[in-house]
């Protein structure tokens, strides 16, 4: 009969580092695929109003964003403190919205144009007159699908007395 030997000491075998580069590259590849880069640099203050009934948009690639609010601190000296509109990465006037919508429609495939939605990301302190002007311009170019972007929260908590 053979004799079994007991291992002396409870030493663990050394961990193999041969697969470590593979793991690092898999993680790198995962984060490169999963991370979505911000497309626009915000030049305005954009504290979204709260709402208690919020729905997520399904297809974000079919959304055109219009930002409205006061210029951020680094742009205050150049543009003042009055609420402004930001289209992509530049400040714009209300009259430039039609050209922006036309350019966005032209950049999409023709069969997707009826599904385009305009999302208004308006600061909670922006005046309603600016929002009304934006909506009038959107009516002129027949961009009637409008989404108001909000954050989830109590809608009544932000009311001022």
UniProtKB/TrEMBL annotation:
Topology in membrane: Single-pass membrane protein; Single-pass type II membrane protein
InterPro entries for this protein: ExbD (IPR003400)
UniProt main location, coarse: membrane
GO cellular component: plasma membrane
Signal sequence, start to end: none
Location of this chain's protein in the cell: Cell membrane
Transmembrane segments: 12-34
GO molecular function, a single term: transmembrane transporter activity
Claim: Iron is one of the keywords in the record: no
UniProt entry keywords in alphabetical sequence: Cell membrane, Membrane, Protein transport, Transmembrane, Transmembrane helix, Transport
Gene Ontology BP terms: protein transport
UniProt record similarity statement: Belongs to the ExbD/TolR family.
Protein name: Biopolymer transport protein ExbD
Originating organism: Formosa algae
Lineage per the UniProt record: Bacteria, Pseudomonadati, Bacteroidota, Flavobacteriia, Flavobacteriales
């Amino acid at each position: 009969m053979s004799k079994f030997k007991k291992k002396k000491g409870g030493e663990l075998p050394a961990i193999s580092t041969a697969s470590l580069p593979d793991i690092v590259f898999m993680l790198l590849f995962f984060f490169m695929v999963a991370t979505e880069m911000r497309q626009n640099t915000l030049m305005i203050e954009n504290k979204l109003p709260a709402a208690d009934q919020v729905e997520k948009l399904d297809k974000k690639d079919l959304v055109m964003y219009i930002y409205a609010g006061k210029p951020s601190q680094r742009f205050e000296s150049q543009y003042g403190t009055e609420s402004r509109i930001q289209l992509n990465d530049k400040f714009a006037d209300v009259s430039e919205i039609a050209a922006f919508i036309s350019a966005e429609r032209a950049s999409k495939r023709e069969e997707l144009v009826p599904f385009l939605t305009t999302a208004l990301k308006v600061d909670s302190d922006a005046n309603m007159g600016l929002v009304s002007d934006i909506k009038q311009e959107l009516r002129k170019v027949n961009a009637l699908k409008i989404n108001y972007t909000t954050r989830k929260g109590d809608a009544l908590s932000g009311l001022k007395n």
